[in-house]
Amino acid sequence: MLDVAIVGGGPGGLALARALQVKAPALRVQVFERASGLHKRGAGVAIAPNGTAALRAIDPPLADKILATSLERNLVVVEDAQGREMSRQLMTFGALGKAPGQAMDGLIPWHAMQRLLAESLGEGAVAYRKAFAGLDLAPAGGGAVVRFADGSSAAARLVVGADGLLSQVREAWLGDGGPTFDNRVIFRGQARSADVAALAAWAAGVGGGEGGGVPDSRICPTGQDLMAMVYMLSEGVTVWAVNAGYGVVKDCGVDYAPYARSGETRASLMEPEAAGAACFEEALKLADKLPATVLRVADPSTTTIHGDYVRYPKDYPDTALGAGPVTLVGDAFHPLKVAGQGANLAFEDAAVLAHHLAAAGPTEAALRAYEAERLPRLRTLAEFNITTMNSAAKAAGQDYQELKRRQAEFEEAVVHAFPPPGSAPRAAPVSC
Predict the structure, then answer these.
(1) Which of 3.40.190.10, 3.30.1300.10, 3.40.50.1820, 3.50.50.60 is the CATH number of 1-70+108-179+311-396?
(2) Could you tell me the pTM of the whole model?
(3) Span 265-269, mean pLDDT?
C-alpha cells in the first residue's frame, strides 16, 4: 500500500511529490498522470515571489534550477486598441537581477517547469497513461483505492487530487458541483520558431535609453472584452494568448461549450481542455479582432482552448474541504481566473501539505490541518482574483493602467507574501 497516491502530474502534483521526498523520505509516494508522457504545452509560467518562497521551502536547489531556466530579459509593452504604446517595462531575471518595480522572479515555459519537476523525482516516480476512473474509500481510516481507466488500481493511505480545475478526484470525493464558468474563454499556443521574427511586425515600437528597443512581449487590452498578447519565454519559445468574453466568442461563431452539451449534471460532464488544429480553426474565427501577427505565427498543433472556471469565495468552507483520506492541491482545490498565479499557489499548497504530512505522518489529521491553514488565504485571493480580472478584461487605456497599479499594490502586500508552512492562518481585506 502506498502512503500517498497523487492523481495528476502538473505543477502541484509533481511539486508535492518532490516536497515529500525531501521532507518525509520514508513515505511511499506515487504520482499517476493520464498523459502518455511529457509534452509541450502552449502556456508560460510567471514565477512570482510567493512561488519562489514556496519552491525554496520545498527544495532550494530545485528552486534555483527552475529559476535558472528563465530568460534574462523581457521588454513588455502595453498598447491600446489602435496600436499606440501606453507603457513599457523592462524585466530582467537571473544574473541580471530584478529591475526596479518588477514583481516576477522568472518567466519560463510551462512544459519546461513540468520537465524539471518530473526529473527531480527520479525514475519511476510518475506512472503515465493512468487516467482516473474512480475512488473507493475504505471504512474507519482504512485509506482508499484509486481506480484507473486501464483496469489497474492503487491502494493508498491518502489520496491527493492534483488533476486540475475539472478535477475528477474532487467530484468523486465531494460531489460538490464543479467550478462555475465565469464567462471568459482563453485561446493560447506557441509560435512557430521559424516565424518568431515576424513578431516584430506587431511589436514594432522602438525607443531609447533604459527599456528601449523592439519589445519582446506585447499586451493589447482592447476595451472590447478581449485582450491579446504575445510574450517571449526561455528555450526559444514565444507564446500567444487571447482572453475573450463568452459573448464575444459566441458572436464570432466559435464552437465552445462551457459545459457538456448533454447529461444530468454539469459537474460530471464538463468538457476537458482540448488541443490541436481544431482549436486553432476556432481561434481563426476571432481573426478580425486580433493583431494579424498573432495568428500568422501560431503553431496550430499547440493551440488550446479552455474556459475560465472559478469557485467563488462563498464556496470556500471555513476549516475543511471534507472528511476522509483525500485532499486537493492546485486548481483542483482553488480554480481561479487566469492571472499568472496558478502554479505559484500550487507550489504553496505542496509546501504546506508536505509540512503537515512530515509532522503528523500520512494521517487524515494532517490533511485537515493543511486545509485549515490554506483556506483563509485562498478565500481572500479568490475574491481579489475574480474582482480584478473581470474588471481588467473590459478596461482599456488609462483605466487599464490604473487597475494594474492597484493590482500590483495588492499583490505586493498580500499575494506575494507567502506565510511559512505551519504558520497561523491569516486573512486580508480585499481592496482593488
Answers:
(1) 3.50.50.60
(2) 0.85
(3) 37
